[in-house]
Specification:
By secondary structure, the protein is mainly alpha-helical. Helices cover 61% and strands 9% of the residues. A two-stranded antiparallel ribbon has the order 1-2. α1 crosses α5 (127-148), α2 crosses α5 and α3 (82-89) crosses α4. The radius of gyration is 25 Å and the shape is elongated.
C-alpha cells in the first residue's frame, strides 16, 4: 500500500506531460506554433522555388507540368502508353492528353503506334525533347542554386538530409 503522501500513478493531473498541466499545455502550444511556422516557411519556400523555376522555364517555352511529363516520358526504357503516364503522374488520362498535345505541337514528343496493338498509342521523346530536357536540367540547377545560395556547403548537406527524412517518411509516389 502506498504511503498517503505518494502520488497516485493513475492520477496524471500533476504530471508535466498531462494535457491538464499548464506547463504541458504551453509546451504543446509552443510546438504547435513552431510546426505552424515551419509549415508556413515550407510553403513560402515552395512558392519561391516555383516562381524561380517558372522564370527559368519561360525562355524554353514549357510549363512545369509539361516539363514533368517530358521528364517522365524520358524515364521509361520503352515508349510508355498514355495510361502509363497518367498512372505514374497520378493524374487523369485527359490531363496527359492535353500535355502530350502541347509537347507534340512543339516537337518534343510524338505519338507512335504500338507494334503489337493498333488501339494502343505510345509516346516517344524526340531529339528536340531530349535537347529541351538538357536545357531544363540546367534551368533547374540554376533555380536550386538561387534558392540555396544563402547556405554553406555544410548547411546544404544537413538540409539535404532533413529533406530526405521528410520525403522518405511520405508515401511513395512515382513521379
Amino acid at each position: 500500500m502506498d504511503a498517503p503522501d505518494s502520488p497516485d500513478p493513475s492520477d496524471s493531473s500533476g504530471s508535466p506531460d498531462s494535457p491538464d498541466s499548464s506547463e504541458s499545455r504551453e509546451s504543446w502550444e509552443s510546438r504547435d506554433s513552431q510546426d505552424g511556422l515551419l509549415a508556413e516557411q515550407l510553403l513560402r519556400l515552395t512558392r519561391r522555388l516555383h516562381r524561380i523555376q517558372r522564370r527559368q522555364l519561360e525562355p524554353i517555352d514549357i510549363t512545369p507540368a509539361q516539363f514533368r511529363l517530358l521528364r517522365t516520358v524520358a524515364s521509361y526504357d520503352a515508349a510508355p502508353r498514355m495510361a502509363d503516364l497518367a498512372r505514374r503522374l497520378d493524374v487523369v488520362p485527359r490531363a496527359v492528353t492535353t500535355l502530350v498535345d502541347a509537347l507534340e505541337a512543339s516537337g518534343r514528343v510524338r505519338r507512335a503506334p504500338d507494334p503489337e496493338s493498333r488501339r494502343v498509342v505510345r509516346i516517344e521523346i524526340t531529339d528536340e525533347g531530349r535537347a529541351t530536357l538538357r536545357s531544363l536540367r540546367s534551368a533547374r540547377r540554376a533555380a536550386a542554386e538561387e534558392i540555396l545560395a544563402p547556405l554553406t556547403a555544410d548547411q546544404r548537406e544537413v538540409f539535404g538530409e532533413l529533406l530526405s527524412a521528410l520525403v522518405d517518411g511520405m508515401p511513395e509516389r512515382h513521379c
